[in-house]
UniProtKB/TrEMBL annotation:
Entry annotated with the keyword Coiled coil: no
Protein name: DUF1778 domain-containing protein
Organism of this sequence: Herbaspirillum aquaticum
Keywords linked to the UniProt accession: Toxin-antitoxin system
InterPro entries named in the record: Ribbon_hlx_hlx, TacA_1-like
GO biological process terms, semicolon-separated: regulation of DNA-templated transcription
Lineage per the UniProt record: Bacteria, Pseudomonadati, Pseudomonadota, Betaproteobacteria, Burkholderiales
């Protein structure tokens, strides 16, 4: 006996034209309508998340980024002041 898999239900109201379009596409792929819709929605969700979370750089920007990591510029005056304030805050908490 296989263990039960938890599922959730999703309902959506669509036009009859869209339903026919989805049914046709599902038939072409040899899938049920539900399987087709779930796969399409999952793919769209993964693509949306990837676009939001993955930073894509041109080759030139990749080179600049690598150079900045390997040979960072000296800290600016503003950064030095921020570090000093941070250190002061940490000392006052002790």
């Amino acid at each position: 006996m296989t263990p039960a898999v938890a599922t959730a239900r999703l309902e959506a109201r669509i036009s009859p034209e869209l339903q026919q379009l989805l049914k046709r596409a599902a038939q072409i792929e040899g899938r049920t309508l539900t399987d087709f819709v779930v796969a399409a929605v999952q793919e769209a969700a993964q693509k949306t998340i990837e676009q939001a979370e993955v930073i894509r750089l041109s080759l030139e920007d990749q080179q600049r980024f690598a150079e900045a990591l390997l040979a960072p510029p000296p800290p600016s005056a503003a950064l030095q002041r921020a570090i000093a304030r941070h250190d002061k805050l940490l000392r006052s908490e002790e």
